[in-house]
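Below sits our specimen:

——
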Amino acid sequence: CVCRIEISPEGGGNIFGTGFLIAADLVMTNWHVVQCIVAVEDNDRSYRGPRAKAAATVCRFDYKVLMNGAIERGSTVSLADNWRVVLSPNNPDGHEPQPDQLDCAVIRLSKPFGSLSAGNTSGASGEPRGWISLPGAGIAPDLAPHSPLFIVQHPEGEPIKLALSTDGVQSVNTGRTRVRYSTNTERGSSGSPCFDQNWNLVALHHSGDPNFSPAHTPEFNEGIPIDTIVGFLSKQGLVDLGKVER
């Protein structure tokens, strides 16, 4: 259910992020991963980063290293024309994140990948791919300090990897808009799902320690508690995502 998000910006190059299915045709990732597309569509003249069109974006599923060491390139799916489902921007640097600043995006795919079987062919034999279920509104993961935290990700745009720490969670801020942990990530991991030891979705990964000084040892990575995101989605009228096939 986890994919690499690949964006080809204007002027060349590549932007990589991570995302995961939360319904048959919906992927959750970070707002900052797709900000380059939003800036073009909204004609945001204040945005100074790379710019791209939605048509230059694909989600690649099953990009992984096989048992024999060969790399499986997986399958890609483009974004739907009406790809924007809900966007919640990141907080400005130096400002405490507010309940509507969750660095979260729910985007729509052009095909219901979660309903398709392995090989992504409609009507093929085999179990459907499925998706990662969001917790119900009001159900909050514990996120107690020193509890385990696992992250499934595409670090540096590489094939899918699992990072885990049995002493992962560090702290949750007062407003429960951010959680910090020691589980390893890299650039390209933005938008990865975070799980507890029972494989319950507990957070959306979005950033690392912002101090990039060569002499500094990173002290934390950071995500958004999934219950806070679910509460935000509910206020947008998006309830029971993934409970019924779209």
Q: What stands out?
A: The two ends are 16 Å apart (CA to CA). The CA atoms of residues 166 and 213 lie 27 Å apart.
